[in-house]
Amino acid sequence: MDEEKVITCKSLSKKFGDFYAVNEITFDVNKGEIFGFLGANGAGKTTAMRMLCGLSFPSSGEATVAGFDVYKQQEFIKKNIGYMSQKFSLYENLSILENIEFFGGVYGLDRKEIKERSGLLIQTLGLEKEAKKMVGELPLGWKQKLAFSVAIFHRPKIVFLDEPTGGVDPVTRRQFWDMIYEAAATGITIFVTTHYMDEAEYCNRISIMVDGKVEALDSPSNLKSKFSVHSMDDVFYQLARGASRSAD
Ligand SMILES: Nc1ncnc2c1ncn2[C@@H]1O[C@H](COP(=O)(O)OP(=O)(O)OP(=O)(O)O)[C@@H](O)[C@H]1O
């Protein structure tokens, strides 16, 4: 039986003037999969992700997210996904509980659902004593965990994570990845960009973008054997060293 595809993407492109930021990318993502979206700075990851999140229109090609069309059904896409960027959207001057309640409301949950789920979430995170603390007082790692929890609070089909673990130590990153695994086990699909190659190893499959194109797509172990190397670092280096784009 075919696996359920929650993202389909065929020859998807985005042009700015004559410049192809994303150049005919094609891939599918399966339900419950942890899909790593890698690429050097400027490769086109954010541009591609914005199209898939229903935040910008493609120039050409086709894509569906959670079964909805990226040209015609952007509003449905937004309702069925969660999104966490590096500058996550938590309010620093609201308490942990207030942030959870606020985002529950934004995502259209009713008061009863919000109350039940926020209590459960605070318990799961072990933040009972801190619930009334301002988010601004939390260490970065905790903010990231909270931002992720908020992004999946409405139980979306897919969550998009744009470099979610920047700036924290390896232990905290590992704990964050435990949360990712738990979410994936409940059937939420994870679409994650990262520059950390240890994190790439945690993904079920990885795509690597170079200069707007997807140059490799497979499981970490298959990629390592295809490139005859022992680490994802080496796979990434072999592909990205020829890139002509760099950070802006
Ligand atoms: N609005 C825009 N107008 C013109 N060019 C753009 C625009 N947005 C992005 N670009 C260009 O498209 C290319 C891809 O950018 P993008 O931000 O998608 O890369 P990225 O892979 O997310 O990089 P990073 O890892 O640095 O975030 C870059 O060369 C960038 O300068």
UniProtKB/TrEMBL annotation:
Descriptive protein name: Putative ABC transporter ATP-binding protein
Residue span(s) of domain ABC transporter: 7-236
Pfam families: ABC_tran
Repeat keyword on record: no
Classification via SUPFAM superfamilies: P-loop containing nucleoside triphosphate hydrolases (SSF52540)
Signal sequence coordinates: none
Lineage: superkingdom: Bacteria
